[in-house]
Amino acid sequence: MAIVTDRSGHKYCELHRGNSSPLGATVFPGGVNFSVFARDCTAVELLLFDDPDDGVPSRIITLDPRRNRTYHYWHIFVPDVGPGQLYGYRVAGPFVPQRGLRFDPGKLLIDPYGRAVAVPKGYDRSLACVPGDNTAWALKSVVADPRGYDWEGDVPLKRAYAATVIYEMHVAGFTKHPSSGVSEEKRGTYAGLIEKIPYLVELGVTAVELLPVFQFDRDDAPNGLHNFWGYSPVSFFSPHAAYSSRQDPLGPLDEFRDMVKALHKAGIEVILDVVFNHTTEGDHNGPTVCFRGFANDVYYSLDPDGNYLNYTGCGNTMNANHHVVRRLIIDSLHFWVKEMHVDGFRFDLASILSRDGEGRPLKNPPILWDIESDPALAGIKLIAEAWDAGGLYQVGSFIGDSWKEWNGEFRDDVRRFLKGDNGVVSRFAARLLASPDIYGHQEREPEQSINFVTCHDGFTLNDLVSYTRKHNEANGEDNRDGSDLNLSWNCGYEGPSKDPALESLRNRQVKNFLAVTLLALGTPMILMGDEVRRTQLGNNNAYCQDNEIGWFDWNDLERHADVLRFTRELITTKIRHSDPAMADKALNRLLGQARLEWHGVRLGSPDWSHESHSLALTAWSMSRRVVFHFMLNAYWRPLWFHLPSPDRLPGREWYRWIDTALPSPEDIVHWDHAPAVQEDRYLLTARSLVVLVARRF
């Protein structure tokens, strides 16, 4: 029988055996069933608390291995408790690191399946890294019952990729800056993001891709800084508590769902950046918070001596293809889809999920096929960052039919071409057409390629054209952190400048990057703030900058109103305009089905040479009712481009839609107001992009 010890030390028998399924803390009439996986341990205690800062539990329930254990699952039903109850576990067992066993009965552990986490005011990560009792300073799990929320008929939107524009953003960083206009108590929260939905709607994006919202350890950063991005998870089920404006432990659950519901009402999907490749527990010097204390050798990939394999660069690697971890990941995805209504997932370092427990790549990784074939995930967006820190690079070869991929080749080749590198023109052309050299063998739709030039990891778009070198001094690592391969160009001067000519060039380059990203075949993704030239002052690894370096400065809307307008017009046209004969098709699909003709500055003579910096493309719709003519001059001098004869065109006239060298509002115009182009050739300013359109009205 389980033995219960109350705060006064009184012991009495607990007669409720409980069940091994479901895992976690599940609310039933009359009480809660607790179940956790803990292989190889010798004893398990369930601790109940009244307050997150309590150092002494209100009750300690010692589980009986004969009555409260089934196989490797420890379980008990506790009557008269319910949602909001704080709890944690203490697990005893052998400490034999060379066998992968690292039990520590002094550590309070959160539930791997806990739906909410309470963070004490005195939380101290360091105390979880050394021997001893850390109860008063440890995270606590919270009993939750997700079934009671009123979704008001909400369901995931399941928008087609062809009509999708992704906006990668940070929940807190979006509204933390005082200029956001969000009330102080809601800045940096799910509720604060809700207040800014009208901005997202006006911008035109159709999906937000949120940097990690799983509960993470803010203190997982060196030099007294704080982890801001959230790539240090402690729980795969709990929304991050600090992103909630509510004070009660269950507030984050409802506030997150309020946000999802509000975004759906605005027609915007919610994609989560999920981290199943490692946890905040790190290597042998890291804290014991959860998984390590229950079954270290199950949850983590270890070498034969029990040392942590590190294919993530973060100290440990999840053993994703172990059957227990596979179930954990699938159950987590089900929770976020069924209970939290998210529309998709972007898997951080997804190639980790294709490795076995010893780090070897698998031809048919079970967890990836589990996700691919799961009926509950059918129609849910699945996006892979198809590489890892151990050198595995799977862009173009990631398994399955449902997965889309962050196209790192798009990022690199577009950067190289637009900054004027030699030997890139043919690769750049392939990127415009959804990278057939990478994906063509799979006969996949163009949207297989998630096209991006910038993301959270690296320079912002403004910094890409303002800095040639990274400037990460604020991170406290002597500028050693962050990538040295930025493929950036400062346009002739390092950092901010008030030189009008230099700023004009940078503005033009920003618009070039935005236009290529949003017009190329594939699924476009832009980074939060790139539409207003948000800067991180040259920091290309701002993971620990929870300050103005990492925040969206809303004053940029006025400072760079022309770039904002350019982005809005571009997205609006991409999503809404289509060939009248194909009214149900977005521009992305229209271009994907067009007949293509390549040119250089002369018609029919594309220059694929090593020194080429120019390219032109004519795209004829299948109905021949719409024709586009794209011209790109990445050369440092103006170039004349010859135009196809208007006699072949619908309407017999070219109209200028985009010219990134022109001042706003002439840089991009509505098709109905586009000025006619009368000449048979067009002068492209150095480093500019022009798109002409002809159509039958």
Description:
With 697 residues, the chain is α/β, with parallel strands linked by helices. It has 3 domains: 2-148, Sandwich (Immunoglobulin-like), CATH 2.60.40.10; 161-278 and 390-576, TIM Barrel; 594-695, Sandwich (Immunoglobulin-like). 20% of the residues lie in helices and 19% in strands. The chain is built from 14 helices and 29 strands. Helix 6 (366-373) links the parallel strand 17 and strand 18 (381-384). Helix 7 (408-419) crosses helix 8 and helix 11 (500-519) runs parallel beside helix 13. The termini are far apart. Mean pLDDT is 94; it is low at 578-585.
Provide a concise account of the structure shown.
The protein is α/β, with parallel strands linked by helices and 697 residues long. It has 14 helices and 29 strands.
